[in-house]
Design goal:
The complex is a heterodimer of chains A (296) and B (306). Chain A is mainly α and 296 residues long. Chain A has a single domain, classed as MetI-like (MetI-like fold), CATH 1.10.3720.10. The longest helix of chain A has 34 residues. The two termini of chain A are 29 Å apart. With 306 residues, chain B is mainly α. Chain B has a single domain, classed as MetI-like (MetI-like fold), CATH 1.10.3720. Chain B has 17 helices and no strands. The chains are: A mainly alpha (296), B mainly alpha (306). Chains A and B meet through helix 1, helix 3, helix 4, helix 5 and helix 7 of A and helix 1, helix 4, helix 5, helix 6 and helix 9 of B.
């Protein structure tokens, strides 16, 4: 889209867009292109020779048990993280929306975890869930009777990274949910109340359907968050272990490319990740946005 | 609320306080741990009464983690990303919305293709690019056998190797993260809502494009800029994967990466008090920015969604 009333100048618009184009070309398009080429090459770790192999790297990837396992782990991890932090965010936002007094203070006290780095959230929870020193670990052992040890048990490690990743995102979800709830016309709620609908019923039949655009948007954002930004959580807490049980896709790209120096495979994995994000974005913009409810 | 529900209202507040406590628990606990000596912090369960070792642990974390240098690095990186991203996208969006030129569509599409793709999906090639900024020219030289041509010209055997590395530099930390269209998109959306009359009036008064930008567009964008400053500063400060790759020199490390050095490993003494103290120091700047600029931050986060 463009304005009706515009300026005309032969060179100024090019000059203005130039920095953006330069930065995008250098640090986005060339690397993306290079990655695409590299994903079809096989080269030795020292970069002495490389050979063009078409899609062999991709075929190797999708027949590799470890990669398929990593896809499964990533899906489980991101769904669990998204659902945990979204439901807690929704719950707290519903409560805060009901509160009559102190809304500003409540918001302040809930908003700040947004600013905590995923890696630092990882460190905090590493301490809380430490098998010998952690207080939450102690509670889990005592009340649930579980032999909690994320250093040894893959399942425990998974629960640990989900908790650390979800905690940080609660405030992000809270901000969007409360904004969405405040945008719902009061008259709708009042009309339902007059018809005798209980607060729970009003939430279920009015608030939640009207929040569906927010819900959908947050689902996408949370999944993208847990696909990529949780790298810091994994790196500080488990390094993908034990036994690859928390080795999510983005961590595997890093491990194979920078520690294993398998450039071809790592590039192919990057291309797969990029394709996943492109599909999600297109889905968001084109398909699903039409289906969620925008108006009462 | 609509009707009187005293029991439900009380329950609301009870659960709300509970929720706030659960959200705040990791930090409260970290604060207590950071105020205890090593003997207390390694007790199971740790005592919940704060000790008076807070300052001592902060000092230990500061020197052990070399936090002074790293916090400065983090600050330079976060401000660089913030300023770079906002200024590049502000003028970029101005160009796209207020001018009509032949390559406008192509520029628009090529920038917005990058909207949702974070640096994490293209780490390896971006790393190669940062390791040698002139790599594309080098490969062009190789592909087109320009070496031979230059040898022939110079009548002398020259091996061309172009090298300009961004590893362990501030531009290397900053520039690849500036390559994102999110801010450009937000400014474009905002510019499109500005009434046409403003531009028409300015033109009628004989204002040039840059005068219009400076005197009208920029002042109108101030709230949006404030919101983006918060969001991008937090984003820049909390970056992990990219600084991890591009810095090997401890003097160039950012604070969030440096914290890794003070987490107690399996065979160390459990200095969790120091680790918690360090974590609290490093998380303080972005938390402060969010809390102090809360109003703009919430607006900037939520508004573009509508």
């Amino acid at each position: 889209m463009i304005k009706r009333s515009i300026f005309s100048n032969p060179y100024l618009p090019y000059l203005l867009i130039l920095p953006q184009i330069l930065v995008t070309l250098t640090f986005f398009y060339w690397p993306a292109f290079d990655g695409l080429i590299n994903s079809m090459l096989v080269s030795d770790p020292f970069g002495n020779y490389s050979r063009f192999v078409w899609f062999k790297n991709f075929i190797a990837l999708f027949t590799d048990f470890l990669y398929l396992k990593s896809i499964g782990i990533t899906l489980m991890f991101s769904l669990a993280t998204a659902i945990t932090s979204m439901s807690l965010g929704l719950l707290i936002a519903t409560l805060a929306n009901r509160a009559l007094k102190g809304k500003a203070i409540i918001r302040t006290m809930l908003i700040w975890p947004y600013a905590v780095a995923p890696a630092i959230s990882g460190i905090l929870w590493l301490f809380l869930l430490h098998p010998s020193y952690g207080v939450v670990a102690l509670a889990i052992k005592k009340f649930l009777g579980v032999d909690w040890n994320p250093v040894l048990h893959g399942g425990d490690a998974m629960v640990m990274v989900i908790m650390a990743s979800a905690w940080k995102e609660i405030s992000y979800n809270f901000v969007f949910f409360i904004a969405g709830m405040q945008a719902i016309p009061k008259s709708l709620i009042e009309a339902a109340a007059m018809d005798g609908a209980s607060p729970f019923r009003r939430f279920w039949n009015i608030t939640l359907p009207l929040l569906s655009p927010t819900l959908f948007f947050l689902m996408v954002m949370n999944i993208i968050y847990s696909f990529f930004e949780t790298f810091g959580v994994i790196h500080t807490m488990t390094q993908g272990g034990p036994g690859g049980s928390t080795n999510i896709l983005v961590y595997k790209v890093y491990q194979d490319g920078f520690i294993g120096l398998n450039l071809g495979s790592s590039s192919a994995q990057s291309v797969v990740l990029m394709s996943i994000i492109i599909v999600v974005t297109i889905l968001q913009f084109k398909y699903v946005e039409k289906k969620v409810q925008y108006t009462g | 609320m609509v009707e009187k529900t005293p029991i439900l209202d009380t329950l609301t507040y009870v659960f709300l306080v509970l929720g706030i406590l659960i959200v705040g628990f990791p930090i409260i606990y970290a604060l207590i741990a950071a105020s205890l000596p090593i003997e207390d912090v390694s007790k199971v369960p740790m005592p919940l009464i704060p000790g008076d070792y807070l300052l001592a642990n902060f000092t230990t974390a500061w020197t052990k983690g070399n936090l002074g240098t790293q916090l400065i690095n983090s600050f330079i990186m976060a401000s660089g990303i913030t300023i770079g991203k906002i200024s590049v996208s502000l003028i970029g969006a101005f160009s796209i919305v207020y001018f009509d030129y032949r390559l406008r569509k192509i520029a628009f599409i090529s920038v917005f293709c990058t909207l949702m793709l974070p640096v994490e999906v293209r780490i390896l090639p971006t790393y190669e690019m940062a390791a040698n900024l002139l790599g594309p020219i080098q490969s062009l030289v190789n592909v087109m056998h320009l070496n031979w041509l230059i040898d022939w010209f110079a009548n002398y055997d020259i091996d061309i190797s172009l090298n300009l590395s961004l590893l362990d530099t501030y531009p290397g930390l900053i520039l690849p993260l500036v390559a994102s269209a999110t801010c450009t998109f937000l400014f474009r959306q905002f510019f499109l809502t500005i009434p046409e009359e403003l531009c028409e009036a300015a033109k009628m008064d004989g204002a040039s494009a840059m005068t219009f930008f400076r005197k009208i567009l920029f002042p109108l964008s101030k709230t949006n800029i404030a919101a983006l400053v918060v969001i991008e500063f937090v984003y820049g400060w909390n970056q992990y994967l990219w600084p991890l790759l591009i810095t090997t020199n401890p003097k160039m490390m950012t604070a969030v990466i440096g914290l890794q050095n003070i987490i107690p490993q399996a065979d160390d003494l459990p200095f969790w008090n120091v680790a918690m103290a360090g974590s609290l120091i490093v998380m303080l700047p972005p938390v402060l920015v969010v809390l102090l600029m809360q109003r703009w931050f919430v607006k900037g986060l939520v508004d573009p969604e509508k």
